[in-house]
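Contributing new records

If you add data, match the layout below exactly. Sequence lines come first and carry their own label; structure lines follow with theirs. Keep one chain per record. Anything else will be rejected by the validation script.
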Amino acid sequence: MLLNTTHTNKENNKLIDDIVGKPFSLLQSIKMRGVGSKRMIVDEVSPNMASILNTVSDTNYGNIELRPIGILIHINKGLQNFTWAIPYYQLVVYKINGSSIHSNGKFIHFRNNKTFKENKKFFDKLMNEKIKYDQQFNFSPL
């Protein structure tokens, strides 16, 4: 779900908390050694999300925040902020020439550059959290 989060809105905050869970506490985030990525350059987005990118040739930036049952992708467009909430069960990550995150027919591709390489540990943490979430619902036929 894509939301305009430029201004604080209780309804948006409640909706985000319902979809991906409440933010990790300070103690939990310290134990996890951080729950947010460094900013990365947005290379490309799906056509149905093109409205959230800058129309001029400015560089678009985004970052990812971990939540207990999903992730938030924060994207800046000038003075506006947009947040894309993705629960883990809808999250698909491809690592081809950078990283591409897909969910519900939408995608965002982050450029493979120095800032992306600095986020390698974060992406490993993201995949570990998704695996932990998926293991809760592991139904084996045995």
